[in-house]
Amino acid sequence: AFRVGSYPRLDEQPPPSFIKGYLAVLEDVVSPLRVPIYATAIAAGIVAVVAATQALGGEAPTNAVPMTLRLLAAVANDAAVWAQRLAKGVEDNGGIVAAVKAHPQLTAVVLVVLAILRRLMSARGRRARVFLVDFEVTDMHARPGDDKAVYAASKLVGQCSNKRFVQSILASQVFDEGAINFQVKVSERSGLGDDTFLPRCLFLSDEAANEYDRNPSESPEFTPSQSIDKAREEFLHLVVPTCRKLLARYAAQKFPARFVSTTHSGDASGGAPKALDGVPDVPLIGAIVTNCSLFTPTPSLSAMLLNALQLPNGAHVRTYSLGGMGCSAGLIALDLADQLLQAATQRGEVLRVLVVSTENITQNLFYGNERCMLLPNALFRCGAACILMSNEPPTTAAGAAYGAARALLRIAAACTGTAAAGAAHLVSGGSRVTARALLGARSLFLPSRGPSDSALALYELRHAVVRTNLAADDKAYRCVWQGEDGDGNLGIRLEKNLMAAAGKAMSRNITELGPLVLPWSEQIRYLISLVLLWNEKRRRRSQLKKKAAVGEDSATAHAPTKEEKKVAVPDFTTAFRHFCIHCGGRGVLDEVEKQLKLSEGTMAASRLTLKSFGNTSSSSVWYSLACHESGVAASGPSGDGRGIRRGDVIWQLGFGSGFKANSAVWVARRDVRRLHSAWSEVAQQ
What we know:
Elements: H1 17-23, H2 27-55, H3 64-89, H4 94-102, H5 104-122, E1 131-137, H6 148-156, E2 157-159, H7 162-172, H8 177-189, E3 197-199, H9 206-214, H10 228-254, E4 287-291, H11 301-309, E5 318-322, H12 329-347, E6 352-358, H13 371-379, E7 384-390, H14 397-416, H15 419-429, H16 435-440, H17 442-445, H18 453-456, E8 459-461, E9 466-469, H19 474-478, E10 480-484, E11 490-494, H20 498-517, H21 520-549, H22 554-557, H23 562-565, E12 578-581, H24 586-596, H25 604-613, H26 620-630, E13 649-656, E14 660-668, H27 680-684
Parallel strand pairs: 4-5, 4-6, 12-13
Antiparallel strand pairs: 1-7, 1-8, 2-3, 6-7, 8-14, 9-14, 10-11, 13-14
Helix pairs in contact: 2-3, 2-5, 2-15, 3-5, 3-14, 6-10, 7-8, 8-13, 10-11, 14-15, 20-24, 25-26
């Protein structure tokens, strides 16, 4: 089985990179080493699998086979490269050439052992690659031709203009005049447009609103419904259709011959292909991570989603539900998914993680009169985002060797009955594998699995999510607080020091993020500006001391000047092309723009997201990214209709209770210019 003739001919398909290397060096040195290197590496992997099997009492380990063979395939590639370098380095040394020719097996063993040591040592502390395969944000617009799930969602969630919102709070008859005036004032200044979405159980119907317009003196009776059943319906009807659309589109890209795309009117992104039901080869989801701060029912949201999706491997899906972490929980969920993928890579597994970020509005509108608890009523709106992440690596020479080694083991197992016996059969005499088994297993060498997730991925996570937590600071810890007012009404209290806590958290977060992303030129410029600023402040303090010594007014002498209040801020536009800032409100965006000294165009996507969808909590950064992809924010730095181009760097920044600030940095792996259905209405306008 290790003979050269058993491999595909070089003229039938492009040769792997390591074979190209062989053809470019001295044939008299590399040729004797070619087969022994791969034979030694594969045999070593088989021996390791057999040893692990015996250690487990004869039961084949689930992770030992792929992890060991993947490592040994990479080892074989390293050993082949070293053989190539050896051949180049000993061209004029006849003694070494003669020794290699005389003992090719021993040379191969030495190279493989060295490569194993190198791989084991370099694997420590090395970060695995994590890919964002695709994502989808919930589209709550109802259009002709929508499927039943989308249509049902439009019946539960609808557009609520600022005028309709004011009519609804008047009709509820639970607010005093001061609370009503306060909410009207906040709604006018919040930055939200008239196209945001709320659960229909929380605002007046069209008929009641029209009746109110005809006769404003008689307000219609309206009682909002905040039951747990309504809250469950909101979650399911926002998230499930979005997840199905995302997974169907992914499966269509993975297996293009098995799916037919069905485009909705007004959706230029290609629509959702036909459902996944009945397709056995659909790539399986290994884990589901959901985050929702204020709605944590039993069973959990991740269990509800798994039950609704009916995934074929549902019994083996790991589920995680995050709660109480505020609007930054979406990036915390990304961090959890990243750690799951890192651990899976260390085990040699391919894992796909579905991340769902949303917030529940049904049970969390405040019906009281305390001013600081009324702010969320005018800011928070419905929305959700579903993200598919994976660690499946690109198909490389090492991956091809791993596939061949795995295929050989499967052939031997088919001939002998068990994996252990097949491994022993290959080690003792693999050439006895029957020709029929080899011919029947041709597809095992070149499996029809479709493109890898890394080839389909839109973005790659540049580094781990940078997280900042100020929970040790009592003021920051309590600035966003869920509690009851004097009348026992439950709500979220936003304290006056919220913006100060957000600024402090962001400052610490970018201090940690800056060295990871800023180019050296900007870091040097920033360091010089810090030195100059420090020198200016020192000079100013020296002048104040001299004035105080001669008897000038101390209050006037020590008044801080504009120069003393200056703070050096690096230019983050040198590191990022697109900014996706959490849309917490107009004040939050103004504060971020002021502190980071960003231009109005840089914040255009986030401001347009706030206007079109409101504060959708943890999913707002994904609506902003969808806005960039759709090319809707024409005034942004990306230009009119540019979208996202390969190599662009995207910064997602989220804030949340606790108080937390989290950052995720993505690098685009391809040009992305697609109109998301959620943004199609805005694009038409």
